């Protein structure tokens, strides 16, 4: 038996590109469609794929998100496995009906006779100097819709493994990469699939559980040294999948630490952190707290944009206030 290939150092964008390339090589029914795919995607997440697979499988579309998503739903019902590129989640709002009323509900409404195995890539989060219409984190919107899985990878390894799992799931997946993570590098092991619905304990601890996802995971990691200097032992969980979310891992951790802080870049009001906090409070009766963005549009000017950012300094302050 040959030894397993060594992990590669890839960017977040390259990791997703590799996962899609492998899926397209293995299954001729996997196709991708969306704006700017012909030039490799606006973040380079399709680089090299148009040259390998041609315009019939890497489909460069006109600027019409509703048409793109509607076509993909039809493709999926006809037996293809489309990857739908929405460029950013903000633009995907033009395709809400096709995703929420058609893709999400088809399997239920027709008794399983139809399946919609599509992956809708909708990059989330603040995007430096891109202002209010290009900087939203809307994962809670889609987690609210029965029939949709919602995924939010934070590392290159997870962007590879979770995209592979999403492509294989057989149902519609809202796949939410972060706009500011594309160039981040990390080790990626080819062939590793990360199961949907399984969180990762990034650091063990005993005083407080922090649950987070996407780019906020890295802000939490950056806050850990300052908290360690204060003798605060944090158990840090990267949720990875928003729906289904890993209740068991979170509840077990919270039962051990007795306290929970949920951190996310999305607006705190109505954010998915509220679902996690409520579940933990109902199941365990422990202290819970949330830290999210204020309910304001993201500003273009740097000082205004910074008001919407939940960075390491704000996380340290929130933890110290919580434990005081």
What can you tell me about this protein's structure?
The structure is a single chain. By secondary structure, the protein is of the alpha/beta class. It folds into 2 domains: 8-188, Rossmann fold (3-Layer(aba) Sandwich); 200-323, Rossmann fold, CATH 3.40.50. The protein has 13 helices and 14 strands. The protein has helices at residues 12-26, 49-53, 65-77, 89-92, 96-103, 106-109, 139-143, 156-168, 215-229, 247-257, 272-284, 302-308, 312-323; strands at residues 8-11, 30-34, 58-60, 81-85, 119-121, 149-151, 173-175, 185-188, 200-203, 208-212, 234-238, 241-243, 259-267, 287-293. The strands form 3 sheets. The protein has a 7-stranded mixed sheet, with helices on both faces. Helix 3 runs parallel beside helix 5, helix 9 crosses helix 13 and helix 10 packs across helix 11. The mean pLDDT is 96.
Number of strands: 14
The gyration radius over C-alpha positions equals 20 Å
CATH fold-type name of the largest domain: Rossmann fold
CATH homology superfamily name of the largest domain = Thiamin diphosphate (ThDP)-binding fold, Pyr/PP domains
Number of domains: 2
Mean pLDDT across every amino acid position: 96
Q: Determine the structural class based on helices, strands and strand pairing.
A: alpha/beta
> In the CATH hierarchy, what is the architecture of the largest domain at level 2?
3-Layer(aba) Sandwich
């Amino acid at each position: 038996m040959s030894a397993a290939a060594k992990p590669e150092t890839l960017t977040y964008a390259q990791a997703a590109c590799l996962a899609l390339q492998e899926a397209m090589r293995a299954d001729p029914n996997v196709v991708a469609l969306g704006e700017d795919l012909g030039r490799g995607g606006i973040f380079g997440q399709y680089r090299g794929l148009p040259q390998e697979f041609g315009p019939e499988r890497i489909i460069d579309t006109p600027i019409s998100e509703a048409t793109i998503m509607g076509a993909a739903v039809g493709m999926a019902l006809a037996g293809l496995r489309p990857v739908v590129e929405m460029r950013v989640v903000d633009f995907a709002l033009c395709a809400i009906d096709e995703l929420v009323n058609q893709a999400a509900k088809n399997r239920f409404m027709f008794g399983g006779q139809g399946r919609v195995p599509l992956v809708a890539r909708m990059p989330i989060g603040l995007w430096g100097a891109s202002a209010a219409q290009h900087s939203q984190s809307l994962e809670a919107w889609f987690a609210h819709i029965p029939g949709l899985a919602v995924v939010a990878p934070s590392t290159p390894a997870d962007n590879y493994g979770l995209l592979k799992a999403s492509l294989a799931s057989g149902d519609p997946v809202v796949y939410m990469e972060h706009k500011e993570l594309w160039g981040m590098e990390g080790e990626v092991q080819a062939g590793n699939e990360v199961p949907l619905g399984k969180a990762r304990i990034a650091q063990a601890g005993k005083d407080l559980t922090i649950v987070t996802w996407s780019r906020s995971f890295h802000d939490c990691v950056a806050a850990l040294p300052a908290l360690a200097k204060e003798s605060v032992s944090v158990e840090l969980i990267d949720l990875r999948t928003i729906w289904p979310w890993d209740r068991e891992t979170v509840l077990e951790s919270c039962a051990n630490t007795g306290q929970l802080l949920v951190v996310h870049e999305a607006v705190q009001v109505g954010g998915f952190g509220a679902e996690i906090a409520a579940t933990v409070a109902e199941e365990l009766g422990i202290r819970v707290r949330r830290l999210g963005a204020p309910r304001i549009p993201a500003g273009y000017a740097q000082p205004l944009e910074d008001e919407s950012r939940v960075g390491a300094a704000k996380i340290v302050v929130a933890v110290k206030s919580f434990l005081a």
